[in-house]
Design goal:
The protein is α/β, with parallel strands linked by helices. It contains 20 helices and 32 strands. It starts with a strand and ends in a 20-residue tail after the last helix.
Length: 750
């Protein structure tokens, strides 16, 4: 098994400890940290000045990698470089201490010098015979001359050496860190063009500096002057280059998104990365004079996706742009689609007609393909909750529809319930969820979506369902720090709290945690009863397993104890208020069959009043999480408006589905049919089905297949199953896995 070493500052310990709550120790990578040992209680720890000296991490014949710790300096910050986002208290100024998460790192990568060319004529003239001594000289060792009483040194027979390339990676997150950066004496040997300062003879020539520093720091005069100290080095500005959002790194995924948008724009809106008109990019005139000078001399390079800086061979030293993805316009992608599948043009028009027709079962021919639309339910059986529903009520956005790990076509699990003016709810939050929000809504739209979150619900502890959570919480904290707000409530399994508690030693996530167990139907009834009884607390023996006549029940089916109710009551009240503000009457978790503490969720919207003062019942959305078919899921899904059910495997792999506690497509559909769900959306497909899963059309009369970025407005939910045959047409050649497409990008996941 390949050994993977991860290096980082001592604060890396907190992240590793957090990950241990959901990754078995046997699967952990080997972590190696440097710097001061973190305090046991997370309090600021003193950092000796000598720790500003480089730590040598790797030093072999291939490369030398060193790290320099960069801490925030709590001295007064000059006005041009003062952070507008936060101010330090007077008690903090001057302290030589650091809190977890404050440390940043500068990495220095140095390749060995290239020895000069060996001159055999010079060696012969110095009395050497061809043979092993020639080799010793080329290796840098001195040898005794064969014919003369002298020592021959490598410098006598080798041409001038070429210094090895040097690259710096600089992360300077705040102006307080820059104060420390500008004073680092250990960087002096790398400065080659310093005004009013003597450069030592041992100075080193830096070829490239990669800046992860945010623009609000790099655009100051002080930072520009510091950059100019590196002389002729090229500077790659990689700190949050927003313009790269419009150039998808996963071209195949962007191509599918454009094709789906052409076929059915109602369910597949135009991706956000093609809608940057409202994106505020830093203006060129905001740069400092030093930065403008660097730009004019071609030393300032904006980072681009897959931009490379070539280090070896030396002849190719410098920027390499051949892998940078080009911008593909939607019109080019659609032109390619129509030449490949001409029938899609007419199919797109027929899909548009679905919103105008109530029609019955129809059969028509698209080229050689016969498309039979499923029997259509007459309008009279439309659920009462959808009566007079508007497009500003509720939208289900499938951000991730794959299982286990991301692929170039499907990200891992995440469902965004968009309640528009009332906020939103996030169900599961796999890695890359924030990136998916930006692809769907654009950069500013994603920020608004995160700010509007009312609560986040996580189904179970498997990593593909929650590893994007910390990034979402940190962004929400930053977006709302200037506004009065309440910490968001995260509902999840108990193991998730251990992860979040450990992570919060690195940075505050501005959240409250509520165990899924406390949102089961039995626990909610206990909470309500406790409130009706005046919040009295006490361990009542009649409520325990040991009371006379009590039933033997799983702990996940029993209500929470009075002590647990009292402890969780304040957070439960916060959740109840947040849901009420979102127009949601109840959030009920229920146990499912997958792993320990795995849950599904049922969301019930509040009743509403239409324009004629008629009371309309609220919709019901049920999400299965990962599970085998089970009675709890069928019961919770009874009368659901939409059931979002995992369908990891095709029907032929039912044995594998049973072994891994997942469902097949037919099993998922059967759960929805048994529960009387109005519509069923299948998701969480195995990555063995990269574009469209294998399914049996005979059972799909109320069902549709989910795709990443699919956005289902409840005002359109009645049309959903009729789109499925057209999707099959779009992917008619894709049922066989084709890994040749963009194979070089297969492992690049945003």
């Amino acid at each position: 098994m390949l050994k993977v070493n991860v290096w980082g500052p001592s604060d890396l310990k907190y992240l590793v400890d957090a990950m241990k709550s959901f990754i078995p120790n046997a699967a952990m990578v080997h972590t190696r940290s440097f710097g001061p040992t973190p305090g046991s209680n997370g309090s600021p720890r003193s950092i000796p000045k000598r720790l500003n000296d480089p730590f040598v991490l790797i030093d072999d014949e291939v490369v030398k990698i060193s790290a320099i710790l960069l801490r925030p300096s709590y001295a007064e910050v000059s006005e041009p470089t003062r952070e507008t986002s936060s101010e330090l208290s007077s008690s903090e100024r001057g302290l030589n201490a650091s809190k977890p998460g404050d440390l940043s790192v500068i990495y220095i990568c140095e390749l060995p010098e290239i020895k000069g060319k060996f001159d055999p004529q010079k060696a012969t003239a110095l009395g050497l015979r061809p043979g092993p001594k020639f080799r010793e000289l080329q290796l840098g060792n001195s040898v005794q001359s064969d014919r003369q009483d002298i020592m021959v040194h490598p410098s006598d027979v080798l041409g001038p050496s070429v210094p090895g390339p040097i690259v710096l990676l600089v992360d300077c997150p705040t102006s307080s860190h820059f104060l420390e950066l500008s004073d680092l004496q250990c960087l002096a040997p790398y400065y080659t063009d310093m005004a009013n300062c003597d450069v030592s003879e041992g100075s080193k020539n830096v070829n490239c500096v990669i800046h992860l520093t945010p623009a609000k720091i790099t655009q100051t005069d002080d930072y520009g002057k510091w950059m100019s100290k590196f002389g002729a080095a090229q500077h790659i500005m990689a700190g949050h280059e927003m313009k790269n959002i419009e150039v998808p790194i996963l071209k195949a995924s962007a191509r599918i998104a454009a094709r789906l948008n052409y076929l059915c724009p109602q369910f597949f809106p135009s991706p956000g990365f093609w809608s940057l008109q409202n994106l505020s990019l830093p203006a060129a005139e905001t740069r400092s004079s030093e930065m403008n000078l660097l730009s004019e001399t071609n030393k300032l390079i904006p980072a681009e996706n897959l931009l490379k800086f070539q280090l070896r061979p030396y002849a190719n030293l410098g920027l390499e742009k051949s892998s940078i993805p080009s911008v593909s316009s939607p019109s080019d992608i659609i032109e390619e689609l129509l030449s490949e599948i001409p029938e899609v043009g007419d199919a797109s028009q027929r899909v548009k007609q679905l919103w105008l027709d109530n029609g019955d079962t129809t059969t028509h021919k698209e080229g050689n393909e016969v498309i039979t639309e499923e029997p259509w339910l007459p309008e009279s059986v439309l659920p009462s909750c959808l009566e007079d529903i508007t497009r500003e009520d509720t939208e289900i956005v499938l951000l991730g529809t794959g299982s286990s790990q991301p692929s170039k076509y499907r990200n891992v699990s995440s469902i965004f319930i968009n309640l528009f003016s009332k906020g939103s709810i996030l169900l599961d939050c796999g890695e890359g969820t924030l990136g998916q929000l930006k692809r769907r809504f654009g950069v500013q739209g994603a920020d608004e979506a995160v700010k509007g979150l009312r609560c986040i619900w996580i189904s179970h502890i498997h990593a593909d369902h929650h590893t994007g959570l910390a990034r979402i919480l940190a962004l929400r904290r930053d977006l709302l720090k200037e506004s009065p707000h309440e910490p968001i409530v995260v509902v999840g399994p108990g193991q998730l709290k251990r992860y979040l508690d450990a992570y919060q030693r690195l940075e505050d996530l501005d959240m409250q945690f509520l165990n899924c167990f406390h949102t089961t139907e039995a626990s909610l009834e206990a909470f309500e009863s406790n409130e009706d009884n005046g919040n009295t607390v006490g361990e009542n023996i009649d409520s325990t397993l040991f009371s006379r006549g009590s039933r033997m029940q799983s702990q996940w089916k029993r209500p929470a104890s009075p002590t647990q109710i009292a402890a969780a009551a304040p957070i439960f009240k916060s959740l109840k208020k947040a849901l009420a503000d979102a127009g949601v009457e109840s959030l009920i978790s229920f146990p499912v069959v997958h792993c320990p503490q795995a849950f599904g969720i049922a969301l019930q919207a509040s009743d509403r009043i239409n324009r004629t003062d008629k009371t309309i019942p609220g919709w019901k959305i049920v999400y299965s999480g990962d599970t085998r078919p089970c009675p709890e899921l069928v019961r919770a899904s009874h009368g659901a408006t939409v059931l979002i059910h995992e369908a990891t495997f095709e029907d032929n792999l039912v044995d594998e589905a049973m072994a891994r506690n997942h469902s097949t497509t037919s099993e998922a559909v059967e759960v929805g049919n048994s529960a009387g769900a109005y519509r069923i959306i299948l998701t969480h497909f195995s990555q063995r089905y990269p574009k469209i899963p294998v399914f049996d059309e005979s059972h799909m009369h109320k069902t549709c297949i989910a795709f990443d970025m699919m956005s289902v407005n409840l005002a359109d939910i009645h049309v959903l199953p009729r789109v499925l045959p057209y999707l099959k047409l779009l992917f008619r050649d894709e049922f066989i896995v084709d890994e040749s497409d963009d194979v070089n990008l297969a492992t690049a996941v945003a």
